[in-house]
Amino acid sequence: MTTMRLHFLIVSLAAFLCSAARGQAVPRASEGKLIGDVADKAENTPIPKAFLLVHRPDGQKDVIVKVSDGRFQLTLAPGLYDVFVAASGFSPSCRKMKISQGQTAVFKARLEPDTWH
Asked: What is the value of pTM for the model shown?
């Protein structure tokens, strides 16, 4: 291989590697946390077997979480979310939650007994 061809090959390979790495150079945004608990509003006791639906209006995938001991903790991308909480025998609750990079948002859901059903 001639020196000219070798030099061209090295320069071409370096240019290719630099252009391929350019798309990966941007770090991913760090995430935030959503923590909280689900309790009976009247007695302030944990509600077992509740569930959360975490919905991001911009079309990203929804998250569904079973809450077995009344407490929950999620790691989410920064953004605005609709958080729905429900449990058998109780009226559901919904709240908008803002998740910020490196921060923890707290949602203390207090559900009222469902007297209609």
From this structure: 0.70
